[in-house]
Amino acid sequence: MSNTHKHTPTSLSIGGATYDLFLTMDSSAKRREEGIVLAAGGKLRVDRVIETCGGGACNTSIGFSRLGLKAGFCGVVGSDQWGEKLLLTMKKEGVDTASATVVEHETSSFSIILSLPSGERTILYTPGVNEHLHDATFDVAAIAKADVVYLNHLSDTSCMIEDDIISAIAKHAKVQLTWNPGGCQISAGIDAPDKKALLKITNLLLVNKEEALKFSGSETVEQALKVLSATGVKHVCITDGKNGTLATDGVKTYHCPILPNVNVIDTTGAGDAFGVGTAWALSQGESLPFSLCAGTLNAASVVGAIGAQAGLLTEHQMRDRLRSHPLSVSEIS
Q: Can you give the pTM of this predicted structure?
């Protein structure tokens, strides 16, 4: 891996920020096949209470900053104690919050996460002011200053900013767009006009297996990979939990396994960590197989700690683990 670069890339993460309250459950929590059982009027003991910051754009901006990029956050927080903590946390991590909007007298996005010993979790949340990310609060001018733009999940009311993103990136061809589409975007499908336009300018598309099948209207992951690649996306990554990741650059298809023997404590933020690691490596001019390894190592580190950010790797840690934990990425076609 080369350490010589002309300049330090600048990233801009667009999307949500959420204050997370983790409640770690002990093994006595009643369970059914579909999840935790919470009895009405009952009490359920928790082992620990942990407060952390999360949300897609908050996670990815901090992830990029730790990996040595000049990272920026573009999203909305409330003027409450949670919003203050979110902004303070990002600033302490070296993230530029100049593109953040603070909405007065409203509640920041907040989550209560019930975390089981297995690493599984159930999330109770309110989107709060994340729903206020729209044309009036979106700093579209910040895109022109970025080398990497990471578009995270958007709420239904925020999808209107897609047109601004498409126009801005069309004017600045140097921008590498990484896109992790959310529920309303996935449901719209790849043939929706704005989604089709976004896909054509996307450098890295990140979806899990279920999202890939629904978004592309496919029946198999292999078919979804081909359909999504045909939209004009440069790199498509489909994650599938313990089965690893399938990815293509439009010419070759690769499979990257997960890191073996990882002690999974909490899976929150694993997808964001994978996306950051992969996008970071691509921004350094690395190959897709190498970039998949970086994403996988970042995700493996995150699931070993409570919260979406505690395990995010620094650039030094990433480079060290890429040397000491080589993953065997296989070429399928």
A: 0.91
Which residue range(s) make up the domain with 80? 10-28+45-242
CATH number of residue 225's parent domain: 3.40.1190.20
Burial class (CB in 10 A: 0-12, 13-18, 19+), 316: exposed
| Number of independent structural domains in the chain | 1
pLDDT one digit per residue (tens) for the chain, 333 residues = 545 445 789 999 999 999 999 888 776 565 555 566 777 877 778 888 999 999 999 999 999 999 999 999 999 999 999 999 999 999 999 999 999 999 999 999 999 988 777 667 788 888 889 888 887 789 999 999 999 999 998 877 788 899 999 999 988 888 999 999 998 899 999 999 999 999 999 999 999 999 999 999 999 999 999 999 999 999 999 999 999 999 999 999 999 999 998 988 888 899 999 999 999 999 999 999 999 999 999 999 999 998 899 999 999 999 999 999 888 999 997
